[in-house]
Design goal:
Blueprint lengths: L4 E6 L6 H18 L15 E4 L5 H11 L8 H25 L3 E5 L2 H11 L4 H11 L7 E6 L2 H19 L11 H17 L4 E5 L4 H20 L2
Parallel strand pairs: 1-3, 1-4, 2-3, 4-5
Helix pairs in contact: 1-8, 2-3, 3-5, 4-5, 4-7
Length: 235
Amino acid sequence: MPRGLLITFEGPDGAGKSTQIKKLAAWLEKQLEEGGEAGSGGGKFAGAPVVTRQPGGTATGDRIRALTLDSRGAVLAPMAEMALMFADRAQAIAEVIEPALAEGRVVLCDRFTDSTEAYQGGGRELGSETVLELHRLICGGLQPDLTILLLPSFEASLARARRRNERVAAQNGADEGRFEQEQDAFHRRVREKYREIALREPERVVPIEGDLGIDEVHAQVVAAVEKLLGVRAAG
């Protein structure tokens, strides 16, 4: 069984990553059931895709998520915040991602190191160099095979993220609004860093920009994944 694939979804809060991950997971499962490209030849995988997120996705990661995203908690120094993100990532790689890849599974991950580079490197102004060096040391340089970068308009994504946090808080009392409470300048730095990453790594990062419908975005996601699977099948 060939090694699996790591596909990550990136973008600002409220970009629609969770929705697109669910739709792609369903599409991949359907392809496997029908024996399509995702389930034949060089593109064959061992079972349904594994869906995870960062921070979170493990018991340790969920505790880190609560600590780093809760706006009611103590103020975190930028370096402490970044260190926690990498602690979460190291645990996720060891516990979820690497075992799944070794089994030949497709891993769909909501955020990875690009998020740290965008939010801590860009938003917190810690720079890319430190983030990338920590990625090399802590993550063993593990890189996604494909990254889907969702970039809806600034106003639409931020408003959606804030509405989502209010809805979740009303439902279960959870607070994950630390980043959404930042000033617009912070969020603009995040977006600028994401664009910088996409320009730096065009073979890996596929940007999808604009306020498109869910199905329009999904079609572009599927096209990018089909291209990846085709390259894999060709050897």
